[in-house]
Each structure stands twice: as C-alpha cells, then as structure tokens.
Amino acid sequence: MSELTDGLTRLGGEGDEEARADAAEVLGEIGGAEAVTALVSALSDPAAVVRVSAALALGEAHGHAGIEALTALLSAPEVGLRGAAVIALGQIGSRLSVTDLLPLASDAEPSVRGAVAWSLGALGDVRAWPALERLAGDADPDVAEAAREALARMEAE
What we know:
The protein is about 70% helix and about 0% strand.
C-alpha cells in the first residue's frame, strides 16, 4: 500500500493540481491509515482544489486521524474548504465534532449552513437539535430543507 499512496500523492508533480485532487479522491476511496496520513498532508497543499478534495476524501475514508486537521479548517477563509471540512466531519461520525460544528450554523454562507445541517443530522446528537430548528427556518430554502431533513432523520433514529 505504501508504494500506492506514495505514487498517488506525487501524481502530477508540482504543477498539476487537478491530478493531485484526483489522487486525493482515490486515496479516500482506498482508505486505511496510510491513505489518511497522506490526505492529512494534502490539506496543506497550496492549491485550494487539492485541499477541498483531500478534506472530502478524509470524510469518505472515515479518517478519524484527520479530525483535528479538519476542525482547524472550520475557520478557513475559503467557503468551499469550510464546507468540505464540515461534510467530512459529518461523514467521519465523531460526535465530538458537534461542539465545533454548532458555531457554523450561523455562517454567512448558505452553502456552509446547509453542510452544517447535513452533518449535524448525520451525527444525530441531541445537542444539535436547537441549531437545526433554527436552520429549519433559514431564509435560504436549501438550508431550511437540509435542516428539516436532518431533524426528520434524528426523529427516526
């Protein structure tokens, strides 16, 4: 596996950010400790598209070792990166992330608020209920729908 992760993380070299983003996606599908380690490293890639792909891939790989690095991205200035980190934390499924996600329920960007609603619903922690109720009344219809779906999912469990 080591040769595979080494090869994928070097794929495309310095200038080919799309190839590095694709490599991150493949690593997420492969999963495992080595892939997660490589993905955590890719979170500091100079290209935003690679960082976003690495964050999403960590979620797909259920990379618990990446929780701390993903949590640090919740304050990233890039909307796409914040949203990817939120989704990944929801996919990883650690309820410890709830307290880190709750402040983003008030994010200025609807896409981030919608991602928070989805992730909080996926985590299924009752501490998220008040925030999801607020988001269910959000002015953005996509955010409100995501929050209503999250509440329904939590009620069903």
